[in-house]
Amino acid sequence: MAKLEAKLGMIVDSVGNFFSGKDQLPWCDPDIVAGCEREVAEAGKQSDEFLQECLLRLSWALVHSKRSQDVQRGIAMLEGSLPNTSDPLQQREKLYLLAVGYYRSGDYSRSRDLVERCLMIAPDWRQAVTLKKAIEDRITKDGVIGLGIAATAVGLIAGGIAAAVSRKK
């Protein structure tokens, strides 16, 4: 009996998470973004390698921000730096962060494409696998909601037509 209750609890939780849109990605507050921006400004006086590390941390903070303008800035930074990245690990990291940015901005198909490119470089990377699942869940959820809206619209139209036909008789 306890096993059945535990399974029912897991089902209820997963359905609740499905419709609430909860994702497993961390959020970043404006204080962290500001701290990363200060770090980048100060890193200009250091080595180029240290500056690149600081820029990557700032990109991470921006794409994980709750503010859409920060997410867009992070996407722009990453897209600008990706063509100049030859190291596979840095490329993997930037592709992942771009995928997070597009996920947060609602462009799920682009996010999925980027995370799949990331998984080509590192097939077992848990963060990327988790993000891919979150993207697929979100696409499924949006599809289910879209179908529900379409079915409701068809029902309303059919009901209106039926009502109009019954009035004519």
Automatic annotation (TrEMBL):
Gene Ontology cellular component list: mitochondrial outer membrane; peroxisomal membrane
Principal cellular location given in the protein's record: mitochondrion
TM spans (from-to): 143-165
Its job: Component of the peroxisomal and mitochondrial division machineries. Plays a role in promoting the fission of mitochondria and peroxisomes.
Keyword vocabulary terms for this entry: Membrane, Mitochondrion, Mitochondrion outer membrane, Peroxisome biogenesis, Transmembrane, Transmembrane helix
Record GO biological process: autophagy of mitochondrion; mitochondrial fission; peroxisome fission
Compartmental location: Mitochondrion outer membrane; Peroxisome membrane
Designated name of the protein: Mitochondrial fission 1 protein
Species: Arachis hypogaea (Peanut)
PANTHER family, per database record: MITOCHONDRIAL FISSION 1 PROTEIN (PTHR13247:SF17), TETRATRICOPEPTIDE REPEAT PROTEIN 11 TPR REPEAT PROTEIN 11 (PTHR13247)
Family: Belongs to the FIS1 family.
InterPro entries per record: Fis1, Fis1_cytosol, Fis1_TPR_C, Fis1_TPR_N, TPR-like_helical_dom_sf
Superkingdom, taxonomy of origin: Eukaryota
Keyword Membrane set for record: yes
Lineage of the species this protein comes from: Eukaryota, Viridiplantae, Streptophyta, Embryophyta, Tracheophyta
Domain notes from UniProt: The C-terminus is necessary for mitochondrial or peroxisomal targeting, while the N-terminus is necessary for mitochondrial or peroxisomal fission.
Membrane association type: Single-pass membrane protein
Gene3D superfamilies per the UniProt record, alphabetical: Tetratricopeptide repeat domain (1.25.40.10)
Pfam families: Fis1_TPR_C, Fis1_TPR_N
